[in-house]
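Structure (tokenized):
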């Protein structure tokens, strides 16, 4: 299918905004027949948008100035596939997908060059199976050089396939068994680093009634050995409200960070961190507990006497050059207005009919800077209030934009038609300022910052979606 549009729809526009930024907006794409989309960012001299329309798939190709160039139709081996993910690196991007054929489950890849021309299709994995026991998911390394495709085979086994993105070759294909864990309830997260090493985070006995036996475990899978190493983190006498695993590719450190409470999973009384070098793994790693200070609690709630924070989750971790890290948390709450809930789809689903009858609250951000020793360096509360209804929360939260000397956290002030976009700019010692970035008044833009991409040290790309209409928006800092 070839999409044709009147000439005037190819035109894009740009406008100058406060603080010497420039905003460019692409032509409009109609999403009425789309299931999902994925923005790939820069591919050579192009910006590419992948569209999933159920049984039809296409690539929308734009110039770096967001002018429309062409539509490329994708023909897969089978009409019915499952998109796993897409990875963009070194002027080449690769689509990973799975399908069924003659009783076999296949995982394949389709690669495209900087001209958005297909260059190869590779079969990565094939297994005899009657049905998809569970859909595959994907993890990508920080530099996009390594890809991990995985799924749960059963309650005790995890299938992982590590792939080199540049050569599109399988580095290892393993089934990891966990006899003492139930992956349906105990699996937390899996990540892969720039060296193709995978780290699997598990957590069991995380409940008020069994918290004395609460324990986390990290399993370490390497392409250089058949041995799976592991270490445990004792979390006895606390309940974990949120927990993630991170890897510092510069210092080769494994970090498990989380929020904890004495008995409540929806609240937290502090944060914890367990850090170790991958070169010095010991059977047990200590978690350093850091209770929230009264200054932090008062900055969030005022002078009200509160002993904990409600509905905060970990948003991200930024590693410092000295081996410390910055833990970023955000208040995130959902309230159902009916007795049922239609769950969200996979693969960047944007459908507003998913997740109906819900109120979404995304409020204050708290940043904790931690020294290499594990001692807190500073903490800051960044105030914001976002509220929306029945939109799957696609406009809430923020985007973290990195530059060499500071962080920018960019977000919608309010979730409404005419809105101001603001930012917090934070330096390494915790000093910050709040700026207005742009106004969407009369621009017909509804920006999804949680799905933005950083293109360079001075540019970011944001999808704007209103009803079934999509524009790509480029913000450039001069």
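Design, position by position:
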């Amino acid at each position: 299918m070839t999409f044709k549009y009147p000439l005037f729809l190819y035109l894009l526009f740009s406008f100058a905004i406060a603080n010497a930024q420039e905003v460019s907006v692409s032509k409009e794409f109609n999403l009425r027949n789309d299931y999902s989309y994925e923005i790939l960012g820069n591919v050579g001299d192009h910006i590419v948008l992948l569209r999933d329309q159920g049984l039809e798939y296409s690539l929308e190709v734009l110039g770096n100035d967001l002018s429309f160039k062409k539509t490329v139709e994708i023909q897969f081996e089978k009409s019915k596939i499952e998109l796993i993910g897409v990875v963009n690196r070194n002027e080449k991007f690769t689509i990973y997908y799975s399908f069924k054929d003659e009783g076999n489950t296949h995982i394949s890849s389709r690669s495209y060059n900087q001209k958005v021309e297909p260059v190869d299709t590779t079969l990565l994995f094939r297994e005899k199976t009657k049905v998809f026991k569970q859909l595959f998911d994907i993890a990508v390394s920080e530099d996009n050089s390594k890809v991990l495709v995985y799924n749960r085979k059963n309650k005790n086994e995890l299938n992982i396939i590590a792939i080199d993105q540049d050569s599109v070759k399988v580095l290892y294909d393993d089934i990891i068994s966990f006899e003492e864990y139930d992956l349906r309830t105990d699996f937390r997260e899996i990540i892969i680093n720039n060296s193709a090493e995978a780290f699997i985070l598990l957590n069991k006995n995380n409940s008020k009634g069994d918290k004395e036996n609460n324990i986390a475990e990290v399993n370490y899978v390497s392409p250089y050995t058949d041995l799976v190493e592991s270490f445990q983190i004792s979390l006895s006498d606390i309940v974990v409200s949120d927990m993630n695993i991170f890897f510092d590719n510069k210092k080769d450190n494994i970090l498990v960070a989380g929020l904890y409470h004495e008995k409540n999973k929806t609240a937290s009384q502090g944060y914890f961190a367990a850090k170790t070098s991958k070169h010095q793994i010991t059977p047990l790693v200590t978690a350093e507990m850091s209770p929230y200070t009264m200054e932090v609690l008062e900055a969030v709630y005022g002078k009200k006497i509160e002993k904990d924070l409600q509905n905060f989750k970990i948003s991200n971790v930024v590693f410092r050059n000295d081996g410390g890290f910055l833990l970023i948390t955000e208040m995130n709450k959902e309230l159902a207005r009916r007795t049922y809930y239609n769950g969200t789809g996979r693969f960047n689903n944007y459908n507003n009919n998913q997740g109906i009858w819900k109120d979404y609250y995304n409020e204050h951000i708290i940043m904790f800077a931690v020294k290499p020793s594990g001692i807190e360096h500073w903490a800051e509360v960044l105030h914001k209030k976002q509220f929306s209804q029945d939109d799957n929360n696609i406009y809430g939260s923020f985007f973290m934009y990195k530059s060499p000397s500071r962080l920018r956290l960019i977000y919608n002030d309010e979730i409404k038609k005419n809105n101001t976009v603001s930012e917090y700019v934070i330096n390494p010692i915790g000093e910050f300022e709040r700026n207005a970035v742009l106004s969407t008044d009369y621009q017909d833009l509804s920006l999804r910052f949680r799905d933005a991409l950083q293109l360079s040290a001075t540019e970011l790309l944001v999808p704007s979606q209103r009803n079934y209409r999509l524009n790509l928006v480029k913000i450039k800092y001069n």
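Reviewer-requested clarification: Residues 294-301 form the longest helix (8 residues). Residues 178-291 form one domain.
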